[in-house]
Amino acid sequence: MTTSPDTSVETAPPALHPRRSAPDAGSDFARLSRRITEAGLLGRCPGYYTVRLGLVIGLLAAGWAAFVALGDSWWQLTVAVFMALIFGQIALVAHDLAHRQVFRRRRTSAIWGQLFGNLGIGMSYGWWMNKHTRHHANPNHEELDPDVAPDILVWSTEQARNSSGVARFIGGHQAFLFFPLLTLEGFNLRVGSVRALRSPFMKSRLLEGSLLFLHMTAYLSALFLVLSPGKAVAFLAVHQCLFGVYLGSTFAPNHKGMPTFTGDDRPDFLRRQVLTSRNVRGGRLTDLMLGGLNYQIEHHLFPSMPTPQLRRARVVVRAYCAEIGVPYHETGLIQSYREALVHLHRTGEPIRRQRKAS
Fold this sequence. Notes:
Blueprint: H1 28-38, H2 46-70, H3 76-98, H4 106-121, H5 125-137, H6 157-161, H7 165-171, H8 174-182, H9 185-196, H10 205-226, H11 229-255, H12 269-274, E1 279-280, H13 284-290, H14 296-301, H15 310-324, E2 330-331, H16 333-347, H17 349-357
Helix pairs in contact: 1-15, 2-3, 3-4, 3-11, 4-10, 8-11, 8-16, 11-16
GO cellular component, one term: membrane
Pfam families: FA_desaturase
Region (Disordered): 1-26
C-alpha cells in the first residue's frame, strides 16, 4: 500500500469538506451547494446518531454476552455470523465518524473513531482515514486513488497489460474470484493496520497500536478460553470471512465499473465525484445494510452530510445533474454487482489474450 506522508490522522483533509475548496462562487458545484444548504441538508442529526451508536454498542455487547452464555458449542457459529454483521456496522459508523458526520470537532471524531475502529473491530482508524482521504480527493484516478491501485486486482486494461505478480496471476479470472477474495478482506484490514503503524502519517501511533493490541488480545483470548481449539478456529474463520464479504459488498457497488481517470485527466469537482460514483436504489433496509453508502454520489459531493439526510439530498442532486447535463448513474443492488463484475472481466481481457498467445 502506498501512503501519503503529509496526511495525518487528526487533520481533516480538504476532500472531506469540499465546500471550502470550491474556488468559483458561480461554479456548478457552488450552485448545487447553495441549494443543498438552503434545504437544510447539512445540519447535524444528533438524535439519529445517538440511537445508531447506542444500538451498535448494545448489539455488540449482546453478541459477546451470547458468546459467553453458549460456551463451548458449535452453535457459536451462528454468533459468528451475527458478529460479522455487527462488525460491518461498526466499520460503517467509523466511516461516518471519519467524515465528521457525527461530531463537529475533529479531535472528538478521532477519539470515537479509534474506539470503534481500533478497539472495536481491530482496524486502524488512522490508516483507513489516510487511505480514504486520498480516495475522496481523486476517486477512480488510477495513479491517485489507492482503491484502484493494481494490487491484487486490476481496474483497467492498461493496468492489466502492465500487471505482474499476483495481479497478473489472477487478473484474467478476477471477476469470478472477486467475492471469494472478499473473504480475506477482514484479515487484510488487520495486516494493513499493523503495517501502517510504521508509517510517518500515523501521529497517534502509540495509542492506535495499543488499542489494536488490546483488541486482538481480548478477541483471541475470548475465543480460545471459551471454545475448544477447533471451534475457536472455526469461529474465527466464519466471523472474519463473512465480515470481509459484508464490508466489501457495501463498498463494491460504489465505484467499481465506473469511469476511471489517468494523468492530468481530472474534470471539475462536481463531475469528478458524480461521474465516478454509482447510486444503489432501495428502501430503508438497503439504507441500513449499506450504511447510506448506497447514496454514493451525494456522499462524495457532501462527505460531511449526515447519513439520514442523503436520501433527501438525492432528489436535489439528481434533478440538478439533469438540469446541467451531467450523467447520474443509479441501479439496483444486483445490477450494481453485475456491472462491477462485467467491468472486472473486461479489464482482465489483455491477460487472457496474452496467455492464449503464449
